[in-house]
Amino acid sequence: MIMWDYNELAEICKDYNDATLALYKLRASNEEAINEVYKDIKSKLIETKILSPSQICCEISKISFYNNAYFRSYLSLFKKIFEEYHLNQLPGVEGVFAHILNQEYEISLPPSINGHFFYYSDKEYSLKNYLEHPINKAIMNDDVESFISYAGKEKFRIDHSSVGDFYPDSYLDLSWLELCCYHGAGKCFKFLISKFKPEITQKCLSFTFLGGNAEIMNECLKEQDPDEDCMKYAIIAHNIDFITFLAYEYDEVIDPEYCCEEHNIQAFLVYLDISKNINQCLIYSTRFNFPPLCQYLIDHGADINSIDRDGKTALHHAAENSCVEIAKLLISKGIDIKARNHNGKTALHSAANRNNKEILEYLITHGIDINARDNEGKSTLHYATSKSLLSIFEALISHGADINAKDNDGQSVLHDATKSYNTNVIETLVSYGVDMNAKDLHGMTPLLTAAKNNSLDVMKTLIKNGADIHAKNNEGQTALHLVAHNHNFDNIVEFLISNGADINTKNIKGLTPLHYAAEDGDKELVELLLKHGADIHVKDMKNQSILHFAAWNFNTEVAKALISHGADINSKDNDGILPYQIAKELENDEVAKLLSPVGTNFKKKVPRKRCKTSVNDFEDLDNFEMI
């Protein structure tokens, strides 16, 4: 095995490192300088396909909070990429960033992306107000004279700043001293320490690794010990001196995964140099999407089939992070394409979950098992269906994926399509001959699942394509039972009845949909079912009538409706109990009055541990005697 060389690797990764360094340590404030950074990013990251334009925009939206003195420069850089590459789908963009972007450039992102947009609008967040705030500006520029002038005012509070959401952990109240550490404002820091002697907090120390002022850092280290945030911020800031300082002087661990997340390839190489764990580094190196790095590690003895703590190989990581060229490289080098992680997932599962059709098809054409199931019994097609990833779904089917595959709960792909409310996927499955009435371990068909979820459009699609409207689950419930047990879905009940659903069908306890409606106190549904011919005299396995069930709720209108349609108030169950007795025991006086057989005395006790026949559990009733 040829020993790797740090300097050689650093040279190989130089362009990658230079471009990401310029992005994370942005110091450009004029248009010309910003254009130079943009050209560098474009030529070294975008055109080399290491990062996509949308990925870089999402990174910019996050980085800006760790280097917010250049927030406006980040916005300008974002705008250039956004407009040149005609972007519109940018999941992951921070809410306040999206708000300021709209405020500064009138660039509006979809509501699903900037979910907090209206919150920030209501709060009147303004970049100008933040950047031009006198004390903020003084700290950013380390203008101690202006800072002293402001600090002399009566309203100045040493322990509380007014900075909005422009900082990491913005939900915390940050002190002015902490902001000095964040911005590396050494003069202002010294003034606060000498004048007010404020507490040097853990956050002060952490922020110094963003601010980059070694003198402030040394002062903070006299009061606090480094923690994980210190290394985290040093990695974000791409400050290799601080990273190595923490690693060698304080034994702080460089997290290779975090290096990948923050595109800090230089810190990653330092980790390799310290840990000597070339196998682990190969696994995580895939996430940089930089083939020369992976190639170098393989050539220098890394085990291509090494796994991480979750059982993932380098191929899993490449698929998860949409690194197409890395995946191709690994396969060409002989990686086990069928390897599974500890959850039983193959790289194909990973590619499908990340909606990467190119990697998915490449894996299929190179022999990966298209129907491989994970520990839950789910195939890749299950995941593509449940997430409504139509292009992945169609690619899998075109390559022969089993459309009737079931998971460990017996749920088919069609069940997943039903739960994701995707009628297009359902129609496609139908065209390939999917089993419309497949049952899971609970006897639930896709139609029953749709009924449980009150999904009318899905039910229409299923019934139109041959789903059995009379199918029952293991409890004997039909679609009509399930919909009847929910409130305010009379339109679905009407639809099922109009399509031939048996209105008087019973479950294994002898309950009809009318029992359910009476039990739930749903007068409108009771009237609707009776209008369509529901049997008002039907009884369950305990000989309980519809009125017995009505007695359990406090809805007098339901009881009135049943009585007006001829329900028998004198009907007794197997224990000889009348509906009136149940209502009375529950102190349901209004219903009891309606159900009372005039002139009758009662000595009959309701049996102990008596409960109604229902899909729900109810508390036991104590013995009682009514006269």
Task: Report on this structure.
- Pfam families: Ank (PF00023), Ank_2 (PF12796), Ank_4 (PF13637), DUF3447 (PF11929).
- It comes from Trichomonas vaginalis (strain ATCC PRA-98 / G3).
- This protein has 627 residues and is mainly alpha-helical.
- Among the domains are: 124 residues, no CATH class; 92 residues, Serine Threonine Protein Phosphatase 5, Tetratricopeptide repeat, CATH 1.25.40.20; 153 residues, Ankyrin repeat-containing domain (Serine Threonine Protein Phosphatase 5, Tetratricopeptide repeat).
- Helix content is 52%, strand content 0%.
- The protein is built from 38 helices and no strands.
- Helix 4 runs antiparallel to helix 5, helix 21 packs parallel to helix 23 and helix 33 packs antiparallel against helix 34.
- The radius of gyration is 34 Å and the shape is globular.
- The C terminus is likely disordered.
